[in-house]
Input
Amino acid sequence: MSLDDYSNDSEFHQRLIAEVLEAYPDKFKKRRQKHLGVATALDTAEADAAAGEDGGGTECAVKSNIKSIPGVMTIRGCAYAGSKGVVWGPVKDMVHISHGPVGCGQYSWSQRRNYYIGATGVDTFVTMQFTSDFQERDIVFGGDKKLERIIDEIDGLFPLAKGISIQSECPIGLIGDDIEAVSKKKTKDIGKTIVPVRCEGFRGVSQSLGHHIANDAIRDWVFDKKDIAFEAGQYDVNVIGDYNIGGDAWASRILLEEIGLRVVGNWSGDATLSEIEHAPKAKLNLIHCYRSMNYICRHMEEKYGVPWLEYNFFGPSQIEASLRKIAAFFDESIQAQAEAVIAKYTPLVDAVKAKFRPRLEGKTVMLYVGGLRPRHVINAYEDLGMRIVGTGYEFGHNDDYQRTGHYVKDGTLIYDDVTGYELERFIEGIRPDLVGSGIKEKYPVQKMGVPFRQMHSWDYSGPYHGYDGFAIFARDMDLAINNPVWALFKAPWLTAAAPTETAA
Amino acid sequence: MPQSADKILDHAPLFREPEYKEMLARKKAAFENMPPAEEVQKVADWTKSWEYREKNFARQDLSVNPAKACQPLGAVFAAAGFERTMSFVHGSQGCVAYYRSHLSRHFKEPCSAVSSSMTEDAAVFGGLNNMVDGLANTYALYSPKMIAVSTTCMAEVIGDDLQAFIETARLKGSVPQDFHVPYAHTPAFVGSHVTGYDNMIKGILEHFWKGQERVPNAAINIIPGFDGFAVGNNREIKRMMEMMGVTFTILSDVADQFDTPSDGEYRMYDGGTTLEAAAHALNARATLSMQDYCAQKTLDYCKAQGQDVAAFHYPMGVAGTDAFLMKVSELTGKAIPEALRLERGRLIDAMADSQSWLHGKSYAIYGDPDFVYGMARFILETGGEPKHCLATNGNKAWEEKMRALFATSAFGADCHAWGGKDLWHMRSLLATEKVDLLIGNSYGKYLERDTNTPLIRLMFPIFDRHHHHRFPVWGYQGGLRVLVTLLDKIFDTLDTDTIEPGVTDYSFDLTR
Output
């Protein structure tokens, strides 16, 4: 953890919340109020108690995982985005059909930067858009027959595909198609894994239910379906919930291998179907994105007795702590290697800090992201001397906000399922030195003259995981904040001394 | 250890370092269970064969890498071109997140739209409450002058009635009685984004024109259509119309909305067709659509009001611009000024200067049907052959029109139009019948990689190159820009091809 302690202006943040709520019609003021809050410090006894139950130094008590209010410009996506876009889409040697009209697959095509190695279109298919392109007749008469034919066409044109997943779009559930029956039938016909996923976009309140449904589909349609010839070793682990954005999973894997572990499955960035199938044979599940994949870890624990452990590979203080935590699960040889790895990378970490910390010290950051990042990246910023003044989750649950208490300081502004209106007002009020959020937020924020980094796609950079990633992260935050463009916004003739147009 | 603070390697160089290459090789060997390299190569070669092409074109149901989006995207784009207008898309919320992201990634600009956030209960009971609450919230939070309602496929499948819902919302006080809430049903399972554009423009015009008496005047309306280059193109139209002294209204002008300045103020709304102008547009003498397929229903509606109508197919290049200007001149009685004739001459001059580099070059073109037509026409003017012309959202009538276009030029002799096909079909075309250049959008980069055909990005969406949309491709000035884009790619490709010292660089000519 960072040595620097700081707190945020709790009273000011409370005032900002009160101000934004004023804009809402009464009914919705009350509803939004529950999602906005300020982190409050726990006293020592409370903190100790909370530490035992995934809590931490502060309490972030906001309501979460509740339906978005209509008409407010929520930043959330849908269940399809959670399943196809997050969990299934990166599995590289399967074809993922966006089943329904053309749009969902089109807008999500190649947008998550799940890096992988393979001959795209031949043995791997991640950056392709397969869709049943529903037409009116499919809505009227149903799409099951069409789906059967599509599966045959995929099998004929893409013979090296190891399997097929069917990612349901909204109409599928509404018109009563039976994609499960189709899957069973066609699995027999073509002899390949076929996974129906009921991730229609109207299900649930955000991407989050899509993650859960996608996890359940792995449990129901992949596990225990074949005899898996795979010899497990004593140091075998799976990495769960690393989507290899910009190569994150690779920058993590290299460290796990260096401490002597064997990563037998990476879920689901750069994953193959085999990596998923043999995962239950591993000794430990290492979970990075808890939000999107805790479900399958819990299942593997119950059914196969594979324990799981949360870790955090953003920034050196968390990487160090995580490497020790992971190593502690194994024997002394792994523990010794973990120490050696930490020592090996210390000069790199020191050099990165020496270079960037003077340029970033004291800079304030507001985050609004999804998954694990609203808390997981906080220490990476603090390792560079930066301060987190506000954070929030697009689709977090109560357990995410509990865990956030570990990371945020007293007085930090907390916003759940923030609306466009709220986020803009908060940023205007706080004027942070940097905002980290998504593509929809990037340009409004930059127009205000506030530096911005996309923290879903790493703004086309990355990796940000691991020690190699930390150097890139530090470079990127510096280049965002310290670019000369931010000083050019005001036209020089608009200063007091210059004559104005009307005066001339 | 490859990483250092002095020279920080990000993904592009980092993973080429030996530590990572070895690690990835180990992963592949031990855990991935991928097919053997020889088998992969064999299948890869097969996918580029004539045999595969025939199998690929025999596909009936599967769509692979289609070049089209769905209706509501077009509706959101269309609505963005009106003064202080917020798009309200009735249905699931994830769709709206997608439209906003998609448009922002292309324009590198904010894109605002709201959703009625319907979930399972709305699927059962209908989305009336979502409409009532949603309109009230949008009105309160975002101070729009107009809220343009369209639909996702969820709302369409369950059959929500927009007109009735909006009226109910009005009665319940969600928005003032006289507040503008035009609407369009935009089912994603019918047509594509160009259909949604048409439906939304028509919805907005109907909203303002219904029950009004038309008092004809000399003005014309121009509907640009769904256009990734709208920022530059709309401004170019305005410039030309002003040069001609024509009184005109652009119906849906997104030029300022998708090109706001950075000066410290975030403008959620900027520019656009004023609501007053949209209402007065009923009185115009004529309405012109720059893209036929983006306004077919709208033009029918305009015609029914007594207006003259004319439609173009993304008028680019010499004859495209000529036809547009002559039509405007014919309808308004305003002469085409000498200054425009000189601009025309300068474009011809540039084409003549460079003709030897363009003559006989073969092209594949894909995109929206009007774009493909306009682009192919310009290519024919340069002496190029637009061999493979493909529009996923093009129909049989479009194919007919393309064939008629090919028939106008000797360079069109060996050219084919492919309506309803996708970019996986295009891959087969490029693999079996090679062309010199591919014209499309960012998705074409995968075709460039797989078939080694240099890609020119002139079609929405362009995600991986910046700011091209700020410059026009319409008008003679726009034609010049397109010409330079083609030439730059031709010269860069030739330079890359002749750059090897002592091997190919005898042709690495200083002057070309």
